[in-house]
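It is worth pausing here to work through a concrete case rather than discussing structure prediction in the abstract. The textbook approach is simple: state the sequence, then state the predicted structure, then interpret. We follow exactly that order.
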Amino acid sequence: MPESLIRFHNVRKAFGPLVVLDGMNLSIERGMVTTIIGKSGVGKSVLLKHLVGLLAPDSGEILIEGKALSAMSRAELREFRRKVSYMFQNMALFDSMTVYQNIALPLEERTKLSRSQIQDDVMERIAALDLGNIAQRYPSQISGGMKKRVALARALITRPEVILFDEPTTGLDPIRKKHVHQMIAQYQQKFGFTAVIVSHDIPEVFEISQRVALLDQGRILFEGSSAEVMASGDARVQQFISGEEDEGASPLEA
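Step two, the predicted structure:
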């Protein structure tokens, strides 16, 4: 069995009267691509934000290699968060910076590397993701698909153990969506990071996922392999993957 790198144990999170996570349990295995699916507004992005410290659970625990985040010292928390990168839904590239500068930013802000070391690391990532011909361009000068690749290069620049992908194919056509999925799979295999993807691309994203978890009504309704989720006899699972969402999704961001 693979080692559980991250485990949510009875995690509860509410915003006023709105309960988003309600005793949720989930295991994220090291070195795998785990995809979180669910209706719009069920709290998938809320789940991701707990992992980067943007939110804290009201109760329950998030365990990293068996140790609760709440029990970690400040130094331990910094060390864990240094190992995690977040690829935002809208890429969050800075329009006033070149592609090179966008990719270099995490190293400049979070490390004490020399300028020459930063340059070496950035150029290595630029070469690995075939971005050399646009390194001095600005985000407004490149395509949406290329922006996704730049955002991935920036996420990879700190050599993270975990990368969180929040709806990485939003706004792309089917061909470019497939390209982004292939890109994630290719570089996950190349660099060995653990990937957690929030996605609505059902069933396309299953092709690159080793684990799938369905979040519904604040809990994980189903957790298993891509083949297992497709073969599930649970009517609610089949309703979701066939696109038959029910009405009344929460207005909360997914």
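Step three, interpretation. Confidence is low (pLDDT under 50) at residues 246-254. The two ends are 31 Å apart (CA to CA).
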